[in-house]
């Protein structure tokens, strides 16, 4: 089936397989996955450990290669791109929030936020943008602190600001509250949703937490590498 040219579909996935061959063993991590995500949508991807959800997110972000199938991000087919081209796509089109923050320990909070802008050649006033984002996540007074001087919740708020620095059309988050206590986790989630609305970003979030997934407009459930259910599609069919 040909991929739609409709630009309202910011993510398009067709017949995606991820297989690890280690003869005589063959592990099918993802099996024939197909879906599209509309611009501005908040999609949660759920599943038990080993269901393939983090692998799927890594493929969508161009951090891993597919065995077969196609992925189009914001009009760019990333399926067979080389690493340099993928890095350019990630720099322009994707913000990423990791469970473990992934801040550079030798850089301050402000410098960590600026890093994607510097690597991608962001054309705006990156320093002004970084200060704006620090203010929006409540850390302007911590701009010159290093990660070791910040709490886990503060580090993840820095990571949120970093993800939005280049104004990417797509934000991907892998268990963004998984390392935080309930209070800090809720605060980070509230900030993530607020920034996502204000920046009009398409959000794809991987989680095992059904309470977190309740905030999403749509939830895809994976089991054994296949799509078990797609809640929005089912609701639309029942309208």
Q: Please give the largest β-sheet.
A: 6 strands, mixed
Tally of contiguous helical segments: 8
Briefly, what CATH class?
Alpha Beta
Principal-axes geometry comes out as globular
CATH topology: Rossmann fold
Which regions are unreliable across 5 or more consecutive residues at pLDDT < 50?
1-7, 233-239
Helix/strand order: EEEHEEHEHHHEHEHEEH
State the end-to-end CA separation. Answer: 26 Å
Tell me the structural class. alpha/beta
Please state the second-level CATH architecture: 3-Layer(aba) Sandwich
Our Rg estimate from Cα atoms comes to 18 Å
Overall structural domain count: 1
Mean pLDDT: 89
CATH superfamily: P-loop containing nucleotide triphosphate hydrolases
Describe what you observe in this structure:
The protein is an alpha/beta fold and 239 residues long. It has a single domain (40-65, 79-238), classed as P-loop containing nucleotide triphosphate hydrolases (Rossmann fold), CATH 3.40.50.300. The chain contains eight helices and ten strands. The chain has helices at 53-60, 83-93, 109-120, 126-136, 152-164, 182-199, 210-213, 231-238, and strands spanning 9-22, 25-38, 42-46, 68-73, 76-77, 94-97, 170-174, 202-206, 218-223, 226-230. The strands form two sheets. A six-stranded mixed sheet has the order 6-7-8-3-9-10. α4 packs across α5 (152-164). The longest helix has 18 residues, at 182-199. The two termini are 26 Å apart.
Sum this structure up briefly.
The chain is an alpha/beta fold and 239 residues long. The protein is built from eight helices and ten strands. Helix 3 (109-120) packs parallel to helix 5 (152-164).
């Amino acid at each position: 089936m040909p991929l739609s040219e409709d630009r309202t579909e910011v993510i398009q996935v067709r017949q995606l397989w991820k297989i690890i061959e280690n003869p005589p063993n063959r592990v099918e991590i993802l099996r024939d996955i197909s879906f599209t995500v509309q611009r501005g949508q908040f999609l949660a991807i759920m599943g038990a450990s080993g269901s393939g959800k983090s692998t799927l997110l890594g493929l969508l972000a161009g951090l891993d290669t597919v065995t077969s199938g196609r992925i189009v991000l914001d009009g760019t087919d990333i399926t067979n791109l080389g690493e340099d081209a993928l890095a350019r796509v990630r720099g322009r089109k994707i913000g990423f929030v990791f469970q473990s923050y992934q801040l550079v320990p030798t850089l301050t909070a402000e410098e960590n936020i600026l890093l994607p802008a510097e690597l991608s050649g962001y054309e705006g006033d990156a320093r002004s943008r970084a200060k704006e984002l620090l203010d929006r996540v409540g850390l302007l007074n911590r701009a010159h602190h290093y990660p070791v001087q910040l709490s886990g919740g503060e580090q993840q708020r820095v990571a949120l600001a970093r993800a939005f620095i280049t104004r990417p059309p797509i934000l991907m988050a892998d268990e963004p509250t998984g390392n935080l206590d309930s209070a800090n986790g809720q605060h980070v989630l509230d900030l993530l949703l607020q920034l996502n609305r204000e920046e009009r970003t398409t959000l794809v979030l991987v989680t095992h937490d059904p309470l977190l997934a309740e905030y999403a407009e749509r939830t895809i459930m994976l089991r054994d590498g296949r799509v078990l259910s797609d809640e929005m599609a089912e609701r639309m069919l029942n309208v």
